[in-house]
């Protein structure tokens, strides 16, 4: 029992230490970890499992280990397998870590991406390293919150995550505004281009009309000259 309590305390200490350092990590890592913790908390609120051994919790751990691995791999400019596109930052950014959504991918998608990682040593090692850490996060999120040994921890982690969620929300707002601004810029550019195309088409039409008129005038002039020549003869 003492050894078990020590192991739990050590896991909590590691989790707190890593969560406290998340603010300095890139947005990709922050959103993935925030979603993992929130979804694991919700999972264990309704699940009687006390360990990460159910299919749902295992998929959560595997999926967000994939996302965190992809965060590292993309920073290293390593191409991501097409089977893993649903785990990338662009997909995670559409989700709200404060509310939690449940896992946004299926077990089949999780397994297909892991199989794709298995074909590359770098990808597999990166995922495997994150897999243990995400398991610790999920175990911590699902621990018995009423036990004296965990009450203080949850007060601490709740404070950390509240600030963390605020930070992620602000990042999402900035990303949304960035995308909206660039979409508006693209729309304006398209309208300008379309207007320019219409102007060019009008100019071409006018030029064709002038050419047609010039050809007609030239033809009349030529026939007139020919008629004059015949009369002279």
From TrEMBL:
<dbReference type="GO" id="GO:0000742">
    <property type="term" value="P:karyogamy involved in conjugation with cellular fusion"/>
</dbReference>
<keyword id="KW-0325">Glycoprotein</keyword>
<dbReference type="GO" id="GO:0048288">
    <property type="term" value="P:nuclear membrane fusion involved in karyogamy"/>
</dbReference>
<comment type="similarity">
    <text>Belongs to the KAR5 family.</text>
</comment>
<protein>
    <submittedName>
        <fullName>Uncharacterized protein</fullName>
    </submittedName>
</protein>
<dbReference type="InterPro" id="IPR007292">
    <property type="entry name" value="Nuclear_fusion_Kar5"/>
</dbReference>
<keyword id="KW-0732">Signal</keyword>
<keyword id="KW-0256">Endoplasmic reticulum</keyword>
<keyword id="KW-0415">Karyogamy</keyword>
<dbReference type="GO" id="GO:0031965">
    <property type="term" value="C:nuclear membrane"/>
</dbReference>
<comment type="function">
    <text>Required for nuclear membrane fusion during karyogamy.</text>
</comment>
<keyword id="KW-0472">Membrane</keyword>
<keyword id="KW-0812">Transmembrane</keyword>
<keyword id="KW-0539">Nucleus</keyword>
<dbReference type="GO" id="GO:0005789">
    <property type="term" value="C:endoplasmic reticulum membrane"/>
</dbReference>
<keyword id="KW-1133">Transmembrane helix</keyword>
